[in-house]
Amino acid sequence: MKLIVFGATGGTGRQAVELLLAAGHEVTAVVRQPDKFEMFHERLIVIRGDVFAPSTIQSAMVGKDAVLSALGVNHRQPTTVYSEGTDHVIRAMRNAGVHRLICLSASALEIPPDTRFMPRLIIQLIVRRLFKHLYEDMERMEQNVRRSALDWTIIRPPRLTNGSRTGTYRIAVNRPMTKAKGLRGISRADLADCMVDLLNNPASYQSLIEISY
Hints:
This is NAD(P)-binding domain-containing protein. GO terms for molecular function: biliverdin reductase [NAD(P)H] activity; riboflavin reductase (NADPH) activity. It comes from Paenibacillus beijingensis. Pfam families: NAD_binding_10 (PF13460). With 213 residues, this protein is of the alpha/beta class. It has one domain: NAD(P)-binding Rossmann-like Domain (Rossmann fold). The protein has six helices and ten strands, in the order E-H-E-E-H-E-H-E-H-H-E-E-E-E-H-E. The chain has an eight-stranded mixed sheet, with helices on both faces. A two-stranded parallel sheet has the order 7-9.
């Protein structure tokens, strides 16, 4: 497949690029500073692009089979990277006739009713307040994606770690992740593994996916 990855310089995006190349795909990585993206492969194209400047990503979208978006920020200030950035990606996809999109959100956007009191309190009083602006923009992003009519998949990971790739994790499709075992987080490597694994899975189209160990 011919794939394009946004957020390729991040911890998850970079590993997604590596896994896609290992699986034999042709990959285009869109980054703002190509000279700082030190990855080389005969099936990898690195281009300078910015999701806030749609003209820089449109031509790269042509001929692609799917889009993986690991867009994110490393601060807690107000942002539109998720919503506006993804909206520009969606418009570029429509213009190029690309239908498959996998993007990342966060599990704390919804708190399942069976969540125990203390974890619920921590999410409501600490996590959602600390990352208020990020979650608000992720909610806007999810609304944009759901309205797009694309073959989209939104993955909602819990706390991310720098652990190794195991290939062993739980996922829940269009339902809350069971709290019987607790949400123990997920490594960025396994999150990338999940993104790649769902590429050709029609059961994940227009679906919300929760993931955890």
